[in-house]
Amino acid sequence: MMKNGISFYVNNEKFAVEYPDIGISFNSWLRSQPGLTGTKITCGEGGCGSCVVALQRPSEGIKAVNSCLLPLCSVDGCHVITIEGIGSQREGFSNIQSRIAKFGGSQCGYCTPGFVMSMYSLLEEDEHPTQHTIEDNFDGHICRCTGYRPILDAMKCFACDTDSSLKKKCEDIEDLMSLKCHSKRPPKSLITVNIQSLTVTDGVATWIRPASLGDLKSQLRNLQQEHKCIKLVCGNTASGIYKSKSNFGYFLDIGQMEELRAINNYDDCIELGASVTLSEMIKTLLKHSDESVTFGAVASHLKKVASVPIRNVASWAGNIAMKCQHPDFPSDVCVLLEAAKAKVKVYDVCTGRIVTQSVFGSDGATLSHFNDKVLLSVTLPKLDDIKLKFKTFKVMPRSQNSYAYVAAAFRAGLASDEDRIENCVVVFGGLGSAFARAQQTECYLKGKQTNSMETLKNALNILSDEIKNVTLEKYEYNLALGLFYKFYLSLCDPSKLGYGISSGIGSLVRPLSKGTQTYETDPEIYPISQAMSNISSDIQASGEVQYVGDETPTTDELFCTFVLSDVANAEIKNIDYSIAKDMPGFVKIITGENFPMEVKNHSHYDGLSECLAKYCIQFAGQPVAIVIAESREQSKQIAESVKVTYKNVQKPVLSVQDAIENNSFYPNNLKPFQMGNPDVAFKNAEHVVSGEVDLGSQYHFYMENQICRAECTENGGFKLNVATQAQLWIQKTISHSFGIPSNKIEITTKRLGGGFGGKLCNSTIAGMAATLAAFVTRRPVCFHADLKTCMSTFGSRMPYFMKYKIGFNANGIVNCLSCDVYGNCGSAPRAVRELAGVQRAADSAYFCPNQLYKCYACKTNIPAPTWCRAPGSLQLNALGDIMMEHVASYLGQDPIGMKFANLFKNGQITLQGNLVTHCQIRNLYQNLMESCGIRSRQETVKSFNEKNRWKKRGLSVSPSKFNVKLTWQKYAVLVSIYAFDGSVVISHGGIECGQGINTKVAQVAACKLGVPLELITVQRTSNISAANSTSTGGSTSSEMTCASLVGCCEILNSRIEPIKARMNGKEVTWKELIAKCYAEDVDLSATYTSPTLPSQSYATYGVACAEVEYDVLTGENQILRADIMFDCGISMNPSVDIGQVEGAFVMGIGFWTTEEMKYDTNTGQLVTDSTWEYKPPTTKDIPVEFNVELLKNAPNPLGVLRTKAIGEPPICTSICVAIALKRAVEETKRDRGLNEYFPLPTPATVKALHNACELDPLSDFNLS
């Protein structure tokens, strides 16, 4: 029976939706209809966790799910709890919200509600989780700001085995909390009804929920007979990977069908229905793990599949179905089930028969065509033979929530004496769509002896022959053989293995993370230097803060989306939008051809980039049109229907090497710069080495995507609310493009959900898109880019390629160097500006009296790079460390000691010609060496490496020097005091990006005015109240904004003091004093802009040590410990500053180890444009032990309020992680006689490191 709507509960409130849009996600409905915008959206793929809510299905418990993948219709009859439902500032915050806020676990705040809801859901499932359970719970979340440590600490306070120090910290925090914390839990009995059938349609598609298996079969038969296009839906998680739009007319929801959710435990097997989720499967197998050798191993492996919110709704059957539809999909589930001897039951819609199949093989389920078949259940036999050995492996680009490079599962039955293999199963995933079972290897091993070198060598050769024709990748080939070797070693008697060989058996096991934070404060200047959390962290944790995309749209608001080119280096032949203009919601399309004549087609005020390409396409992802529609979803759908054809398509120039080969450069206005006399120094150098460093790009991964809302104003101008670090640049761009004066352009920004430089110059693209759409429609328009657009269009960190030559003496003291620096400036010449800063950035922690640098700006077909946290400084500081490592390797010296000998000291001259003063780098280096016991740890690492052939450790120390100039930034500040109650409001020209600028501003104001912090509010940034303020960047915005604020406070104090003096020393309250000032006509508002300081500059110093462990056979690794000592002068807020150190360092870990931007060499398209392919660090990629110390008693006489810049500099020390990994690789190569120097692979991914080892499995893998 057709029904015209669905109903469900959100936070105990019932909602009814008539004629629901079948294709819409619950997240889209949630954010737009009831306006519950605390739940965020970033990737739309279930890969970042910002969208997590708690879902309670009928007669089930509460579970965390990704609302961006949850179809709206699937929540019919369910209860959803969002961040708004568990606590607020009005009703009191929940303990989870309060703890993550007070622990400093919320910086920009955009990801925070997702973390909170995952923890809430876990506590609903398990009131007494362990710390390990809690750390495992956040595998589906990304936070770019914090480095995760404070988030994990806050959450582990809820553990039944909480560490005593965490418990004490938690108790201290809760004693100080002003609001009563509570947990607003909905009654579990709210939904206990039986599942009812459901059929709804939106005129395009129909959603059907069969009430029973019989009903499902009947529906399928009827629809098949009518040749309808059908999609079975359980968790809908495949849509996060495969986003191509298919014309499904019917969606059959089987996620809640009782028969398909059944779990039956029999004497000889466990049977799981097709809709049993991966989480339920894990729990079931763990519960019965003592009944089968396979169950525990399968369950442990399944925990590595996707993430908790995905596994909570994704079914094992959906994973198999995805493998059938997409043969290249690396299905762990298929590998595991095949090795565990599982059988699946399949219903044939055409014949009505139910057949039992294996997973792989000629008659396997993975070869079935599921357009006419349905998986019903899987049976896992109980294999309890103690002689049975079962092991599985999954090697990933990242520690968790990632596809596998290669997955493998092995099962072997041993004879009673365990010295002979009676049978064996060898299963692989990731070696090509057609390969799964190594059957020839299995046959050979049957009856063979273990502990036999002959058996191992023959098996490796046979396996090599089986797989070398199915995979073209050297890494996957070597890895598959390495995993088999691991399994074979596990079958052997350890006492019969050679020295150190048994280290190859196990995989790396990550311990529970921990860390320390050490700093000092100065109570005499409180609240300056006082450690406190972000002033808005509580309401960030409750989802009450508003970002641009959270504002309620007006009734006439429109939405726009780019149409992007999918090739580079071509010309536009035609843009066909004939289908688009007839689609629902279509309003208008703007192209380069119909671009308004009165508007300049520029996306930046420099006029060097087109807003919309008219003829030529420079890069894949370049906007060619703007679609305007009634809703965001409609604008995206319409944009996808626009067809662009091209002509004169040329091979794209993508890399620096491509540019050199094609002689593709921008006019070089960058003159070489040098100090000393490098030519003479090289002639006299005792030793000279040369090398190359190739450093790729990095996406900023701000959690809040690019967004701007624009509307026309009554005076012929525009009003914008935009997520930008650079209001001034957007104002200039719109003024330039529309030919209107700046005073007709109003721009506001309250806060950003992360920036890291990505919302500087390229945010003008979003600003122009929204403003242009508003101009042509005369209606408010919102432009909100998705992740793919942000990654493909808006640019990323500039790639660098550097050729160096360095001269030094026998002691490793460097005397001369020369370097050619090539910057990949992409498709727009404005990126050349970053190369202009090379002279400042190249002056790293090491002194060299004779230097020469030449810079080359490469013109390529990638989006114009933009500034990204420590632009240039990250790469050039690393260059210094890499060169030192090269010198030490050449001389056979310890690089740690040699680095110290080359460090800067007071009295030396920098590359920019400045005299070094107040230099802390040697002090920091020595303190770290002593406090962290580096020398003894080096010996421990050496001993470990001698004892373990297939596990290695590496330790590295890296210093950094980040040069800061206070010469270009200026920020206007307005401070007003209200006469009625003495409260203070501040508006300033800096932008809150999560770096804590508003918190520091409030602290300084409270100190300088002598009022409680609670009286101060910091309002949004506006180009009206803070005119002419420069962009927020360079790590000095907080510093310079506070300088302007101090000026405001001095002005106000100079007005207030005479009134106070006339009160004859009478004790009066602040409120009474301000009332008196008002009565006597004192101006209680002041504005001030601190002047730039043309000659003022200083350096920020830091030192970090990383110790890593590396699995030689797989390339997997983990950071066992990181110690960071940083000089930030007198910290304005140690809690905020340590958060910046940790966050920057972890972002650097991503740059050096997991984040890789790859382009299709034929089309120029970015391949890694999703969370499936692009892998920022997650909670288990951070150091196991993470220690941070701020240098004590180190005031900065050259900075504002004796502080130093902190947002960017710490990322420069993260090179120590990559070098430590390289040390581990050097150790394994040394074992095999490979002693030649080799360049650091960048990024040092699992794959790149393994390739650098140069393993030859057929000769290197042995038993002795």
UniProtKB/TrEMBL annotation:
Residue ranges of every copy of the FAD-binding PCMH-type domain listed in the record: 200-385
Keyword terms: 2Fe-2S, FAD, Flavoprotein, Iron, Iron-sulfur, Metal-binding, Molybdenum, Oxidoreductase
Essential cofactor(s): [2Fe-2S] cluster; Mo-molybdopterin
PROSITE patterns reported in the protein's UniProt record: 2FE2S_FER_1, FAD_PCMH
TM stretches of this protein: none
Annotated signal sequence range: none
Pfam families: Ald_Xan_dh_C, CO_deh_flav_C, FAD_binding_5, Fer2_2, MoCoBD_1, MoCoBD_2
Organism superkingdom: Eukaryota
Family: Belongs to the xanthine dehydrogenase family.
Record protein name field: FAD-binding PCMH-type domain-containing protein
Classification lineage: Eukaryota, Metazoa, Chordata, Tunicata, Ascidiacea
